[in-house]
UniProtKB/TrEMBL annotation, chains A, B:
Organism this protein belongs to: Kribbella qitaiheensis
CDD domains xrefs: WHTH_GntR
Superkingdom of this protein's organism: Bacteria
Signal sequence range: none
Record keywords: DNA-binding, Transcription, Transcription regulation
Pfam families: GntR (PF00392), UTRA (PF07702)
Biological processes annotated in GO: negative regulation of DNA-templated transcription
GO function term, MF aspect, one: DNA-binding transcription factor activity
Protein name in the entry: GntR family transcriptional regulator
Transmembrane parts of this sequence: none
Length: 279, 279
DNA sequence: CAGTGGTCTAGACCACCAC
DNA sequence: TGGTGGTCTAGACCACTGC
């Protein structure tokens, strides 16, 4: 290959050598929209566009880079699915403040954080102000929840729905499902469950969970949830299915967490005592 | 609001009532490309387009739905970032076979799977044939690895790079970093580390890891990794930072896993013995 | 009303693939 | 050579925002 570095061929009509004002040069091999995304991403990270502040408008960027607005739109689209930028209709594209929150699953329940919930601790650790809303409903068990709770599909469940915020910004949805009968016995059918929350009430009646499993998977944001989480279309979310079981390994509660991918870091810690010593 | 359900206004020029052949009707409120993506997604899930088979070509779909090719391209783009579809240049867009692999982190090391590696087990469980490649290099510690291994930036590390496949399809990258000195002592500077792998060799010299932490975060696929993983641009990946520490809580090995989001489900299991009984 | 982004089209050129 | 998808433009209309 002699022409390895083969002349980028300035074909596409827009490598027009305009030089009015601050035009930024875009080369050919990598798609323009990707290169522009790279540049904007870099500017954001360098603080040229501070968190919360708007990017230049699409027509402006279009002029700066000498490409059509559609191309700009596509570049910004990349940053949106990455969670770096959020668009507010009619207003502009804004740099998202993304202090990543770390969730240490294996510490959330054990300590049962006297007085403070796990979310509270996680959020304050990065200097954010936590808040949430809660509501309780009764629903029939879906195939999924029925399977996890080991009851028949359609069985009555109590679902405790919570929405979490950090500095007023939505960060997470968590729906906890319990079999109605158990929820009533434990007295967690009202919004307020008392000190220590649902798990403490379950412990009170001897059904305190001690075995936990979590399954993390991906999905693209589903309409309703995406809307609440202020997510961009197409942005990825973590879905966590959390199952808490009592001493006899009977599942007592299932929680489904939905959280915007880029806002969270998930942490797990554990120890394996080697049974037979080290060989 | 009297006009709550306000007439979708069939404005955009393309609600043209063409009826030649098998044209599928597209309504207005939701973007056309999103609706088309919904339809195609549904067809895939119903098996109309079987795993491994191609979607109809863009011009074909363009005719079917009565929209421009660009719109089709955008619809397919959604399916690509969701991991449902993979495009092979010049050939077409193919339905990705996605048997999701479940990785149970908390079981991977404890059992130290006599004879079989954790990946092997995980993959075969869903009926896939595992394979991998490995190589060993020496690199200076980056800020990240240095911090995690508690050495100076630039210190010499041995990195064991592995690439994993299932049925020949790339699924995961895993790079394990060890301080060179330790790696030499443990004898894991060659590709073959003997039965039980690196951790067993570390155990042999009394540095067997028993404390583990994992941190999961998101990233959009980085060029090189995305290429290897056969990923679509823009598709989300899990990054797992895994730290193994010995009895004295000294970190001995750090592994960075990169895996395509839609191919994996991550599972964790643990037990919290309540120290003071259940109140 | 002007400004923002959201979507869509038609037409174009490109790179890659298979024949 | 003809088919596939990848990218880009220009022009257009839309909805939402704020003045």
């Amino acid at each position: 290959m002699t022409s390895d570095d083969a002349q980028p061929r300035a074909t596409m009509s827009a490598t027009r050598g305009r030089e009015g004002a601050e035009m930024t040069q875009i080369e050919a091999p990598r798609p323009r929209f990707a290169q522009i995304a790279d540049i904007l991403r870099d500017r954001i990270q360098r603080g040229v566009h501070a968190p919360g502040s708007p990017l230049p408008s699409e027509p402006e960027l279009s002029r700066e880079f000498g490409v059509s607005r559609v191309t700009i739109n596509r570049a910004v689209g990349l940053l949106r699915t990455e969670g770096l930028v959020q668009v507010r209709r009619g207003k502009g594209a804004f740099v998202r403040p993304i202090p990543v929150i770390t969730r240490v699953a294996t510490q959330r329940h054990g300590a049962r954080d006297k007085g403070r919930g796990a979310y509270d601790v996680e959020t304050r650790r990065v200097g954010l102000e936590p808040s949430w809303t809660a509501s309780v409903e009764r629903v029939p068990a879906s195939e999924l929840t029925a399977g996890l709770l080991n009851v028949a599909v359609g069985a009555e469940l109590v679902v405790r729905r919570r929405k979490y915020f950090a500095n007023g910004v939505p960060t997470q949805i968590a729906d906890t499902y319990l079999v109605s009968e158990l929820a009533e016995k434990a007295g967690v059918t009202e919004e307020n469950t008392g000190p220590g929350g649902t798990y403490s009430r379950l412990a009170d009646i001897g059904r305190g969970p001690i075995h936990f499993t979590e399954e993390i998977s991906f999905c693209s944001a589903i309409a309703a949830e995406a809307t609440f989480l202020d997510m961009e279309p197409n942005q990825a979310v973590f879905e966590i299915l959390f199952v808490a079981s009592d001493r006899e390994h009977r599942p007592v509660a299932v929680t489904r967490h939905i959280m915007a991918g880029h806002q969270w870091r998930l942490r797990y810690e554990w120890t394996d005592e080697p049974e037979g010593g080290s060989e």
